[in-house]
Amino acid sequence: MAESNPANTRDAEYLAKLQDYYANWKSIPSYAALCEVFGIASKSWVKAILDRLEKVGFVERTPDGMWIPTRQFFARPLSDVSVPAGMPVMVNDTHTDYFVIDDMLIDAPSKTTLIPVKGDSMLGAGIHDGDVAVIEKRNLANVGDIVVAIVDGEFTLKTLDKERGKFILRPENQAYPVIRPEGTLEIFGVLIGLVRKYKH
Amino acid sequence: MAESNPANTRDAEYLAKLQDYYANWKSIPSYAALCEVFGIASKSWVKAILDRLEKVGFVERTPDGMWIPTRQFFARPLSDVSVPAGMPVMVNDTHTDYFVIDDMLIDAPSKTTLIPVKGDSMLGAGIHDGDVAVIEKRNLANVGDIVVAIVDGEFTLKTLDKERGKFILRPENQAYPVIRPEGTLEIFGVLIGLVRKYKH
DNA sequence: TTGACATCAGAACGTTCGTTCTTTAGGATG
DNA sequence: CATCCTAAAGAACGAACGTTCTGATGTCAA
């Protein structure tokens, strides 16, 4: 990943204006409208600016030729410091990445739903009471996936497993029993992400 | 919060396609391009669809007449089903809420940074290797907070605790030792959120 | 079986857009 | 003090775009 800054401070200002505009309107407007945004009067110069911003990776174009922001455009820095939760190690630097939480977690918005987790039967998998599960709705899953299953009309979050040729739902907490569905086991969706909010 | 759904299921499908498109390209394309996205051939019908989606609050227009998504466009359904990770309980339905992940996790963007977690010393707190920690940068914290501390110039994620009047950093994994800083204990930030992505 | 309505298709048209080219102004360089 | 470069302005043009209208289906109820 090329780490590039706008070639000069003027372009950085234009980028900032564009980012502010995008934050408001969630789209990149036409050259004519960008003239106002940038405070200049020349469409061709707007194009020149965007061409340069493209070169350094802040915008790109769709196959239709429409300008769109890149990941780098959304400057929420993924910190260059890796936090060792194990032993403290030296900070190794040099690599900056950018990161949009929504993008990371959600590939297909229309198939994705969020479900708050109740209870602690998945504690062993690091899923706590009150966490929000990011679920991609589909009815097929692999053994080992954590799934939201519908057992006898009830929803439950468990690890999908197989035992003697039959699917079972395994909690990740020894205080809870393994669920061995008698009828059909219907999968509501698969866990693709997890979000936790700490209160202060 | 106005709960408005697309008037009919067909419009809901079009909305879903538009949301998926936007997730990819971060812009709403021209009517012509939307024809392909929606799988129809009529620009005028595309406009009719967007007019209806505007009426129920999923898109709006800039002063220039450009279509842009609204907040509701990004909100994901916080599913009406509470998933019991404990024992299965009955589904209670009827109430739908919306929810924007970024908004939930991040209060002050400029003070917030994301840091990938390395290692498993916080496993007991449900923080796994590879999780992304949402850190609010500040240098004061309370006992019991999970903090990113700088110990001898090195970053580490631990629970802040006090022992005989001195601050210590406690891992949430018995395989790791408690850190008792000799010099000063500098707090880089406090853990306010956690994001995990499951790979498939 | 007829009419109303929803769901699209297609054409027509004036406007806007992106692109390219030429020109201008000012500062730096030599 | 000529000339080079950067930073724009401005005009010209065809293609693309949004809008509006008219038609063509299919469906359902009266």
Radius of gyration of chain A: 24 Å
Q: Which CATH C-level class of the largest domain in chain A is it?
A: Mainly Alpha
Secondary-structure-derived class of chain A: alpha+beta
Share in β-strands of chain A: 25-35%
Describe the structure.
2 copies of one chain form a homodimer. With 200 residues, chain A is an alpha+beta fold. Chain A folds into 2 domains: 1-99, Orthogonal Bundle (Arc Repressor Mutant, subunit A); 105-195, Ribbon (Umud Fragment, subunit A). Chain A is 22% helix and 29% strand. Chain A contains 4 helices and 11 strands. Chain A has helices spanning 9-25, 31-38, 43-55, 101-105, and strands at residues 59-61, 67-69, 77-78, 83-84, 97-98, 112-118, 132-137, 146-151, 154-163, 166-170, 186-197. A 6-stranded antiparallel β-sheet of chain A has the order 6-7-11-8-9-10, with no helix packed on it. Chain A has a two-stranded antiparallel sheet with strand order 1-2. In chain A, strands 3-5 form a two-stranded antiparallel sheet. In chain A, a hairpin with a 5-residue loop joins β1 and β2 (67-69). In chain A, α2 packs across α3 (43-55). The longest helix of chain A is centred in the N-terminal third of the chain and has 17 residues, at 9-25. At the A-B interface, β2, β3, β4, α4 and β6 of A face α1, β2, β3, β4 and α5 of B. β6 of chain A pairs parallel with β4 (83-84) of chain B. Chain B binds a DNA duplex (30 and 30 nucleotides) through residues 8, 10, 30-32, 40-45, 47-48, 65.
